[in-house]
């Protein structure tokens, strides 16, 4: 499978590198308006191929994306320290108005995977620009937040994160919703598991985990200016689900007719990811508080998306 990565900066290069290490498709093509950087990143990643998989890595213009089955969109400006993901919106909408049509001219049958922030709104912008069925345009959404939630829960419970099933819903951002009521491991709800093992999930522990998930990106950005490795690995995981037609359930953002009473909005929910993109959406059971939090989160994204639509003249 041929994979395109548009945007060869910190996130795009980390994603391409993760794809190689995970033995992704047989060809990865990097595209960036800074052609020299794209070439340099492609060459550097190519030199890792002998340690990983037999994959061709190259750089080129949009026409090099010809017949790509998946195109990953990471282009855009970086989130700055103290800046919310939604503050990035107006700048990145303008970027996507140029790149999405160019991508589709070269690869009209591709699934588009959006990682540029604010990712939920940018996934909706991409869906509008591409005029594709919603399932063909996927935002990475809260896939990384979900991984953080599972990791922190597992650390407290002293079990493997692979055994924890817990999701973060809504916005990939400050209003995200940790789905505590549905979190479980080994078929046991985490509160009961904590009681059985003596590792109780009291208010202070929950607060610490919530903050660890919600503030992780802000802390990383404050330290090094951007996040890239975690989301790069998340992108590679979504790619594998598409390439292998896995029908794996993961939290990602897709335009939906309605979520928690908010119409026409792109938020993260558990989605079934397969060869053609997202093929189904699941709505987990929510407490009244969680439903209200999800409605608030969806409303924030909806307001930002309407701002983006106005910027695009839609």
Write the layout of secondary structure elements.
Layout: E1 2-6, H1 10-21, E2 27-31, H2 35-46, E3 56-59, E4 70-73, H3 89-106, E5 111-114, H4 119-130, E6 137-139, H5 143-157, E7 164-165, E8 168-169, E9 177-178, E10 184-185, E11 188-189, H6 190-197, H7 203-214, H8 216-224, H9 229-243, E12 248-259, E13 262-274, E14 277-281, H10 288-312
Parallel strand pairs: 1-2, 1-4, 2-3, 4-5, 5-6
Antiparallel strand pairs: 7-10, 8-9, 10-11, 12-13, 13-14
What would your notes on this structure say?
The structure is a single chain. The model has no long low-confidence stretch (mean pLDDT 93). The strands form four sheets. Strands 3-2-1-4-5-6 form a six-stranded parallel sheet, sandwiched between helices. With 314 residues, it is of the alpha/beta class. It is 44% helix and 21% strand. Strand 8 and strand 9 (177-178) form a beta hairpin. The protein is globular.
């Amino acid at each position: 499978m041929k994979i395109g990565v548009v945007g060869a900066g910190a996130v795009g290069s980390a994603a391409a590198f993760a794809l190689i290490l995970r033995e992704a498709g047989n060809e990865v093509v990097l595209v960036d308006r800074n052609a020299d950087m794209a070439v340099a990143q492609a060459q550097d990643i190519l030199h890792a191929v002998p340690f990983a998989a037999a994959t061709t890595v190259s750089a080129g213009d949009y026409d090099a994306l010809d017949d790509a089955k998946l195109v990953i969109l990471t282009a855009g400006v970086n989130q700055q320290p103290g800046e919310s993901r939604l503050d990035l919106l107006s700048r990145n909408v303008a970027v996507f108005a140029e790149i999405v049509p160019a991508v589709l001219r070269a690869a009209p049958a591709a699934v588009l995977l959006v990682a540029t922030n604010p990712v939920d709104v940018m996934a909706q912008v991409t869906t509008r620009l591409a005029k594709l069925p919603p399932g063909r345009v996927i935002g990475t959404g809260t896939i990384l937040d979900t991984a953080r939630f599972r990791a922190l829960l597992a650390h407290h419970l002293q079990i493997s994160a692979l055994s924890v099933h817990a999701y973060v819903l809504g916005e990939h951002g400050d209003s995200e919703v940790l789905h505590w009521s549905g979190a479980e491991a080994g078929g046991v709800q985490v509160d009961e598991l904590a009681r059985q093992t003596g590792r109780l999930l009291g208010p202070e522990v929950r607060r610490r985990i919530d903050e660890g998930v919600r503030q992780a990106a802000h802390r990383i950005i404050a330290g090094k200016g951007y996040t890239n490795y975690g989301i790069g690995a998340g992108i590679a995981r979504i790619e594998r689900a598409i390439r292998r037609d896995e029908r794996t359930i993961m939290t990602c953002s897709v335009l939906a007719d309605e979520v928690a009473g908010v119409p026409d909005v792109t938020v993260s929910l558990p989605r079934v990811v397969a060869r053609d993109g997202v093929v189904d959406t699941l709505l987990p059971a929510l407490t009244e508080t969680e439903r209200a939090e999800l409605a608030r989160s969806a409303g924030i994204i909806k307001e930002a998306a309407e701002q983006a639509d106005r910027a695009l003249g839609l």
